[in-house]
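Submission checklist for the structure archive. All mandatory fields must be present; incomplete records are returned to the submitter.

[x] Identifier: Class I SAM-dependent methyltransferase
[x] Organism: Streptomyces sirii
[x] Residue count: 623
[x] Sequence attached
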Amino acid sequence: MAPAHRSSARTRAVAAAAALGLAAGTVRARRRLAALPLLDPAGPFDTGLPPLAGWHLITAPGVTADETTLRAAVAHAAHEGLRVVDLIPARLDAESALGLLRLLDPAAHRADRGAPGHGAGHAVLVADEVHRRARLPGRLAEAPPRSAADLLRLLAELKEYAPDATGWAIAPGLAAPPPDPGRHAEELRARGLPPVLLSAGRLAGLALLLKCLYSAPRWGAAAAALYWLQPALVAAPARRLRPAGLARATAARPLRAVSTVLHTLRTPPAKAPGAADAPARRAAYAAELADGIDRFFEPRRIDCPWCSAPDPVVRVRMPDLLQGKPGRFTLEECRRCGHVFQNPRLTPDGLDFYYRDFYEGLGGEGAALILGRMNATYRARAELLRPFTTPRAWLDVGTAAGHFCNAARAVWPTTRFDGLDMGAGVHEAERRGWITAAYQGQFPDLADRLTGRYDTVSMHHYLEHTRDPFAELDAAGKVLAPGGHLLIELPDPEARIARLLGPHWLPWFQPQHQHLMPVGNLKQALVERGFTVLAEQHGAAHQANADFIGAVALTANRLAPDPHAPWATAPATPGRRAARSAVQALALPCYGAAAALDALRTAVARATDGGNAYRLLARKELG
């Protein structure tokens, strides 16, 4: 085929794909819109009570609701068993409605305890007990919502406090001001979306439509028409949303899209999290680093901490590729048993230094985002127990903010879930209701007071962080009642991909991971402590994006560390800032290729039962 013909065929294929994608998006939006309940202003209502008895309405500036709407919203929440309801104005503008329906699947998000809390950003109805648990009385008195973005962030938080009792409803009597294009970037950030990247993608999409219209007129015209008419095709026949100025918005959609994109791109970038505390944080790190980092390391040991065999060999060396803090770290491997361990090991003070601002503080938001996207993995872990037991009391050790427990409640709704962790996030999990009781501290130190209380203990990607894995296993044996079950998931140091990627294999996770145990070693340790191994999984425990996407992220961070990090030892010069931006831009296509490789790798891992992690389920015997 001649080059011109091949190019024409490719353009027709792209235009056809664009048309089909827009058609599918339109059908999906209509289906989601149909799933949104419409408040019934006719009642019946109990007019003997105040309209918001037991409830609180939180609104963005300029949003108002009449008494009939409030009573209808409270009645709907009570009928559906909801504790939080996002109220969507029936006159919501078309583009905002389409944006919401791209993110929100009402039926799926209501049932999914781990789904994000997307909303319209106008008004939220909150039950009194959720209002109190989320500590809103004092917070809202001090800082009431100033924009739709504040409402969007608030709903995302409240969904965590009512994970299976958050809903959405269209409120015909809710009056809201028109959208402010100048705040579009802020609202995207509040939804957890990157404004610049999305705006660039939107411009590229419009340019692609023009290209298709010119080079493949039939399919290009179909795609352009679907894009142009999409607001009317979604909203006009629905009789639920009645967007203000729908005809004008539809007619002017391409021009308005370009205008919104330009507004968004002109918006100054948001201040980084913790920017107000940056000088004090930078001074504290500088003072700590002034004493050097040698004090953060213990003397190098000459034998294996697992089997005591002498002369371990170096497996891999690397700097801190996670945060870019100063220091170099060595993982050594035992010649006899294959145990991989950090050598020299960090002291407790060193661990405190390198953990700081990772799971909490500066890194808290990013860590929560990653942990919140693993719902399928959490459910798979919980399902592993189904053939063997029905858990009644479950302790999740290393629970962080309790994301696993929140998801596992959908699998085991009658089970009591408690959590233990070193960080303060365990108390936030308790306030959210994701766990019943929170324990903060070291597991071996708390084991005596928990002796025999639990029939299930889990350690998911926890044991590799500990200084003494044997002490942790002994603590688990003490806390479990006879016949109880211990569920452990760990990175697999025997994974072949670890040697291929070297220091850029994410599960090495230096400097946090202290020990990485081959599965045979862990099984032997469990048997020695009176456990019987019931199940072993490798492919099912594989972490989907920990190999190639992780390698790209670590490499990009190694080539151009964040110059604004408070622990950075070099000033944030324009050259360093430009270098980081350039590396991040060049990494974008690499992430695309890495995602494809990780998808293939995951499929192979599932099929061959050979992934980058493993799970063991063991039972404590009665003797």
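[x] Structure attached
Curator remark: Residues 210 and 220 are 8 Å apart (CA to CA). The chain has four domains: 3-23+194-266, 32-185, 275-355, 371-544+610-620.
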